[in-house]
Design goal:
single chain; mainly alpha; 7 helices
Length: 147
């Protein structure tokens, strides 16, 4: 049985068929067995359970595909050209400049709202609020200048 299994697994077409038939047999056995544990309040020992007897089917089978000798060189060259273009040669555009902005610059009023929430939290928990008050005054002055 073991020699036949190894022979079937080494052949590409029949090896897949052998694995499928084994999986189907295991599924059928699992569906037909309806054993119920007598004492479900105790933990199940792994060494005496059915899971200890299971074996893992090979996930990947070795394929006999040959790659051309130049494939690794062409992949390395392609990646190198891509990196040189995007990291060195390419000029910044307006989309790149948008990445330099902070969230507070993008959403008007967010910094003030977060500072107010931090102020309330720090007051409730007895923490210092001096820095928060200074920044809130700066923001309010900036808002008055823009109006």
């Amino acid at each position: 049985m073991l020699a036949e299994r190894n022979r079937l697994l080494s052949e590409p077409d029949t090896g897949d068929e052998f694995l499928r038939s084994c999986m189907d047999k295991q599924r059928t056995i699992r569906l037909l067995t309806t054993e119920v544990e007598q004492n479900e309040s105790e933990p199940i020992k792994f060494s005496t359970s059915g899971a200890a007897r299971k074996t893992v089917a090979p996930v990947m089978t070795k394929t006999n595909t040959e790659i051309p000798w130049y494939q690794p060189y062409s992949v390395v060259c392609s990646v190198a050209v891509f990196l040189i273009y995007f990291c060195v040669l390419r000029e910044e555009n307006n989309v790149d400049l948008e990445f330099n902005k902070t969230l507070y610059e993008r959403i008007h009023g967010l910094e003030k709202e977060q500072l107010l929430q931090s102020y309330r939290y720090n007051k409730e928990n007895g923490k210092s609020v001096d820095d928060i008050e200074k920044r809130l005054k700066e923001i309010e002055e900036d808002e008055l200048k823009t109006l």
